Amino acid sequence: APATPLKASGRRRSGAAHSLKLLVCAAMIAVCVRLLDVLSAGAFQAFVVVLLAIPVWDVVRRNRATGTNHQHASMTSANASQADALVAHFERRAVWDPEAHMDRATCRRFLIARKGDYDAALAMLERYATWRAEARPAEITAADVRREFASRKAYAHGIDRERRGVAWVFVHRHDRNKRDLDEMRKFIPFCMERTIALSEANGTEKICIVFDLAGFGMKSMDYELVKKLIYILAMFYPERLGKVLLWNAPGLFNLFWQAVKPWIDPNTVKKINFVTGSELTDFVDPLEFPKEVADRLFGTSSPMSSRM
What we know:
Helix content: 55-70%
Order of helices and strands: HHHHHEEHEHEHHEH
Distance between the termini: 50 Å
Number of helices: 10
Strand order of the largest sheet: 1-2-3-4-5
Strand content: 5-15%
Number of strands: 5
Structural class: alpha/beta
């Protein structure tokens, strides 16, 4: 909520008192240095100028911080009111279309994805509402994606160190010549919904995806599927990605990465990390690894073995 005049004046008084204390301390230091006579007259004058600059800089720093905080509070307030307006829009639609309901968290994520542009967020949410009604992602079961589910090429398991649900993707199990794109259109949201459920059970809404790139080969280079994955995540799951880990990427993957990287939003690219070997433990506690990952990384000393 925006700061009240009373709170704002209180902060100003507190800031002024802090700057006054700095000024008194600077003066006391100057007196001590002068009494000790360790500096020449010219050097002492320069020393005093530097000391006096400290409280001045403190005032400037606090004013900048206050301005930034006020601006952030104003933006947050504006986004909150826009999110409420989006919720109200879909509540009106829900009168004749019960499935049109959108919760506030969803509206906020789409609004952030469109950088606070209400009309763009609304248009994006309309597309999402249509897709959700047709694809019904929350209702997709393993039976609906039987072949991909059986391949174990991707599944939700555990949480990362930020308590985000983790989706593990094993690219060597994917063959672009054998996959069914229609089934993959269901399998992607099937995995997303389950990973999001892990996150929300742990108090967060973002997820982590680990791509195990060991064994990446020509059969794994599925450009059509990657485009579909990027589209689904960007259009229907905005602001859900917290971290993407590209683990143990071979040299061949670099060629593939240079081709697909331009398709990804720059803000999403910032969330992507290349990691090798045990660096994965910087992001995910080994106790949260799937057993097959723990066994590969630690062998007989796998932390999972001690829990068996």
